[in-house]
Structure prediction request, 558 residues.
Amino acid sequence: MIKRQIAALLTSAIEAAQRQHALPAMSVPDLGIDYPPQPEFGDYASSVALRLARAVRLPPLEVATTIARLIPPSPEIARVAVAPPGFLNFTLDDRWVAQQVETILQAGERYGSKLLPSKRVQVEYVSANPTGPLHAGHGRGAVFGDSLANVLAFAGYQVQREYYVNDAGAQVRSFGATLLARYQQALGLPAELPPDGYAGSYMERLAAEIVAEHGRRWLDLPPEQAQQELAELGMARVLEWIRADLTDLGIHFDRWFHERELLREGVLEEALARLRAAGVLDEREGALWFASSALGEEKDNVIIRSSGIPTYFATDIAYHYDKFLRRGFDEVINIWGADHHGHVSRMKAVVSALGIDPERLTVVLTQLVTLKRGGEVVRISKRTGELITLREVIDEVGPDACRFFFIQRSPDSQMDFDLELAKEQSEKNPVYYIQYAHARIASILRLAAERQITWEGGDVALLTTADELLLVRKLLTFPEVVEFAATNLAPQALATYALTLAGTFHSFYRVCRVVSDDRALTAARLKLVAAVKTVLATTLRLLGMSAPERMERLDNEE
Prediction:
């Protein structure tokens, strides 16, 4: 990765300056390597001289000049320039840049991978209660979590993907009571929904399916038993819906972890014993409390109610105890909805009380999604008159558009999902624009094959124009984007990169004919576009999207 090579050159120069007493001995600060605001300044810029200037009590320009003088020659770098107020600007050597096409082709789909030291990371996402279908808002967390897991695994981590199934507690009892009432109604019996029941029409559909398959079986059982058995059957059906929706989005989990496992295997008792030993549990008013206030929280939190029933906070404690201390993950990343904001700090507090560094737990909160058709906000499904389900979004726009539109913005920002734009077959639609670039390259390679032209023996040194070299430079930033996305938990950076790379390719294609009468140049450019195709396909794969070889508009042109 060229950024690391520049970092090594800078570090070497600073250490040389210290040995020569041109700079005082001190630890090397953050090198501040980034992209210059304007391309004429070079390919990379470092602000390290500005960071050093105050500590060494010298003008930033003088510090920058000293460092620049001692940067060793490198085949990657054509020149290093000093710019006010103290930046070091690096310009890559064009010949070296062109040669990197060969490096990319040789690496293939491994290009940009295995950048980080291996560690065991668990990513838990979606984890919606199995009491109803996924709605459109769940899609954002699902796509973010899955894309993040893809990126972390590609970057070199050992990643486990997990869905936490809340199949114990009050919501299950309420679900069972609702389903029993709907079941009775489906059989023509009068029944009232519980006051805290689930009012969605999907409960009526669920009850009708159960009646069709099992008839009046549960009418002869005591209500409590009927409610429990129907809850089990209903949750299993809902989980089938959820699995089907996620599968169609290309999302698969290594483990579906059921909450009742924690209770059945005594994990909660193990976790509470550890907290008691830490002196952070308190019994009062017949309930068991976690002394959160002593750890900086605004108030204490109930773990076991006076009725003896654990709170959902209790099972979360057990779940994280299991993640860290039983299964031994180095890091745990939870993708939660914004409505869990108040739960984050107390989970950090309890993880710390369990003797685990709270920095090992990261919680990413995803903000709300607003569905639109053009400029009009869509809140209710025309089909059901209720909240729009994830299934309806997938069916309307397709999984690729669904994934891209959900991932294109940072999870902490509110987002608008324009259903009409997501379906549009034009360059206005970013999904179409990106996939069209990949399909265009596939079309070029097919044309070359039809004419029996290959890139074998092609000399990439012939890639000398500004458009060709800009395209290669864009490919060189891919490993940096992967590293940024992995270390900052920001897979949305790959969506931005895909759009930028596609745009750079489209600009190149408009001015550079790939297959021409010049066989030597054709071979070189075929190598270049093949490298672009490889990187674009990898980017789309990390985003969980397809990389089409054909698209209707191109097929018509061919």
Remarks:
- The radius of gyration is 29 Å.
